[in-house]
C-alpha cells in the first residue's frame, strides 16, 4: 500500500501563510497516512492528537482545492478547538455544495430509529438526510460534486450505524465515479480487544452492514480501507489519518481532544465502553436505560429482582466491571413512567473490561431467571448480533466460555484474512 504523507519539513509554494509549515507530498491517489506512523512510540506518545479534520485544516484544505465538495457530518464533526468542520471549510474557501447527515440528524439529538428530514444550515447550505427516505446518497446529488468527504465520530461497535452510512456512501461514490475522502477520528474504545460474532450471510443489515467483529477495534479510516479491498476496488479512496494516535489509549486520554457526543445516548467514553454490553437489550423486554440519566449504563424492568440478578452476575466474576442494584423510572421509551428494577454497571478497569462477555453473561442470567420473557424480537436481536447463533446459545443456556470460544474462532478467521495495510496505527 502506498501513501500520501503529510510532513512538517517541506514548504509547498501553494500553501497559505498560516500553513507555511504544513504540506502534502503526493505518493499515491488512494490513501493519506501518517509520517509519525513510522516513528517510535516513545516519540509519538508525547504528540497531541490531531484528527483528520485538524490535518486537513493545517494544509488550508489544499487537498480539496478546485473541487466541488459534499460533506457527511454532524454536530460531533469538530476540530480540536471545537469548531464545526463545515464552517472551517466555508471559511477557508472550500467550494462546499451541501452536507449530508446520518442517523440522529445533523444536530445529533434525534432518538435512534427515527427518520431524519432534510434541513438547511448557515442560511442556505442544504443538509440532506441519509436516514430518511434513503440511507444512500442520491446519484443526482453526487453529480453536483467531485468528492464526498466523511467526518463522523464512531463508537467502536458494529451495530452503531455510522459505519453503515460510510459503506453506503462509498458504494454511491464508486457508482458515480467520484472520490471519497475519510477524515479519520479516534475509535474511543480501541484498546478493547475484538469480541463478538461476525455477520452471517443473510443477517447483514443497517445495524450490521460491515462484516467485522461486533467490538471491532478499528477506526473508520481503517474500515474504509478494508471495504475498498473487499468491495469497492474501483473507488478513489483517500484517508486523512490522525497524528499522535495510539491503539493503547481511550478517546478521553488525549490532551487537547474532547470526545463530542455523536448521538443522544452516547454521552461519554464510559458509555461507549458499556454500550456493546447492553445494546442487545434493545431487542428485549428489558429497558437499556433510554429515557434516564444513564442510558446503556443501567438496565431494568418492572419484573426484575435486582438483588437476585446481581448475585447471579457476580458469580461470573466479570473483569473490569461491578454491578449494583438500581431503580429508575424512564421518562421515555420502554416502561415510560413505570418504576423499573435492575442493575447499574460501573467500570473498575477499562482495559480489563470485556463488553461482549459481559453481554453474554447478562443475557444468560436474564433468560435463566425469566425464561421466555426477555427476547421479544428475535429477528432484530439476530441482526444486532449478526447471526441467530448467539440468541440460540443464550436460549439453550450454553456455558459462557463456549459462547466466547465460538465467537473467538470467527474473529481469528477474520484476522487471518484481513489485509495488514488496513491497520494504520500502532
Model description:
By secondary structure, this protein is of the alpha/beta class. The protein folds into two domains: 4-264, Rossmann fold; 269-395, Aspartate Aminotransferase, domain 1. The protein contains twelve helices and 13 strands. Strands 6-7-5-4-8-9-10 form a seven-stranded mixed beta sheet, sandwiched between helices. A three-stranded mixed beta sheet has the order 2-1-3, with no helix packed on it. Strands 11-13-12 form a three-stranded antiparallel beta sheet. β9, α6 (220-230) and β10 form a beta-alpha-beta unit. The longest helix is centred in the last third of the chain and has 18 residues, at 400-417. The radius of gyration is 22 Å and the shape is globular.
Quickly describe the structure.
The chain has 426 residues and is α/β, with parallel strands linked by helices.
| Name of the CATH architecture of the largest domain | 3-Layer(aba) Sandwich
> How does the helix and strand content classify structurally?
alpha/beta
CATH topology of the largest domain: Rossmann fold
In which range does the helix fraction lie?
Answer: 25-40%
CATH evolutionary superfamily of the largest domain: Uncharacterised protein PF07075, DUF1343
Quaternary form: single chain
Q: Give the C-level CATH assignment of the largest domain.
A: Alpha Beta
Amino acid at each position: 500500500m502506498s501513501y500520501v504523507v503529510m510532513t512538517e519539513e517541506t514548504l509547498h509554494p501553494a500553501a497559505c501563510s498560516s500553513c507555511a509549515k504544513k504540506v502534502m507530498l503526493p505518493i499515491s491517489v488512494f490513501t493519506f497516512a501518517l509520517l509519525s506512523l513510522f516513528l517510535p512510540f516513545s516519540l509519538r506518545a508525547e504528540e497531541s492528537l490531531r484528527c483528520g479534520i485538524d490535518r486537513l485544516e493545517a494544509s488550508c484544505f489544499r487537498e480539496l482545492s478546485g473541487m466541488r465538495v459534499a460533506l457527511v457530518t454532524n454536530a460531533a464533526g469538530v476540530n480540536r478547538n471545537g469548531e464545526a468542520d463545515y464552517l472551517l471549510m466555508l471559511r477557508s474557501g472550500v467550494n462546499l455544495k451541501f452536507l449530508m447527515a446520518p442517523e440522529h440528524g445533523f444536530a445529533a439529538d434525534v432518538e435512534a430509529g427515527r427518520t431524519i428530514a432534510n434541513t438547511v444550515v448557515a442560511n442556505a447550505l442544504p443538509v440532506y438526510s441519509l436516514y430518511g427516505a434513503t440511507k444512500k446518497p442520491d446519484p443526482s446529488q453526487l453529480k453536483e460534486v467531485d468528492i464526498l468527504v466523511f467526518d463522523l465520530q464512531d463508537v467502536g461497535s458494529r451495530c452503531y450505524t455510522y459505519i453503515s452510512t460510510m459503506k453506503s456512501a462509498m458504494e454511491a461514490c464508486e457508482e458515480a465515479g467520484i472520490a471519497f475522502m475519510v477524515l479519520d477520528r479516534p475509535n474511543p474504545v480501541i484498546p478493547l480487544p475484538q469480541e463478538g460474532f461476525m455477520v452471517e450471510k443473510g443477517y447483514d443489515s443497517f445495524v450490521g452492514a460491515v462484516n467485522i467483529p461486533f467490538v471491532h477495534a478499528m477506526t473508520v479510516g481503517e474500515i474504509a480501507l478494508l471495504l475498498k479491498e473487499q468491495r469497492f476496488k474501483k473507488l478513489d479512496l483517500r484517508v486523512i489519518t490522525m497524528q499522535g494516535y495510539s491503539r493503547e489509549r481511550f478517546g478521553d486520554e488525549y490532551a487537547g481532544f474532547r470526545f463530542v457526543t455523536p448521538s443522544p445516548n452516547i454521552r461519554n467514553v464510559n458509555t461507549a465502553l458499556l454500550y456493546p454490553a447492553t445494546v442487545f437489550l434493545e431487542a428485549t423486554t428489558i429497558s437499556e436505560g433510554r429515557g434516564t440519566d444513564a442510558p446503556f449504563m443501567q438496565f431494568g424492568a418492572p419484573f426484575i429482582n435486582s438483588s437476585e440478578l446481581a448475585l447471579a452476575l457476580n458469580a461470573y466474576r466479570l473483569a473490569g466491571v461491578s454491578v449494583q442494584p438500581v431503580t429508575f423510572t424512564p421518562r421515555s421509551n420502554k416502561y415510560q413512567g413505570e418504576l423499573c428494577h435492575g442493575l447499574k454497571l460501573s467500570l473498575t478497569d477499562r482495559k480489563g473490561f470485556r463488553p461482549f462477555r459481559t453481554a453474554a453473561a447478562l443475557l444468560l442470567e436474564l433468560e435463566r431467571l425469566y425464561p421466555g420473557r426477555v427476547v421479544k424480537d428475535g429477528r432484530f436481536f439476530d441482526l444486532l448480533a449478526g447471526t441467530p447463533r448467539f440468541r440460540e446459545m443464550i436460549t439453550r443456556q450454553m456455558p459462557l466460555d463456549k459462547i466466547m470460544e465460538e465467537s473467538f474462532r470467527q474473529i481469528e478467521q477474520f484476522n487471518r484474512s484481513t489485509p495488514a495495510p488496513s491497520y494504520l496505527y500502532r
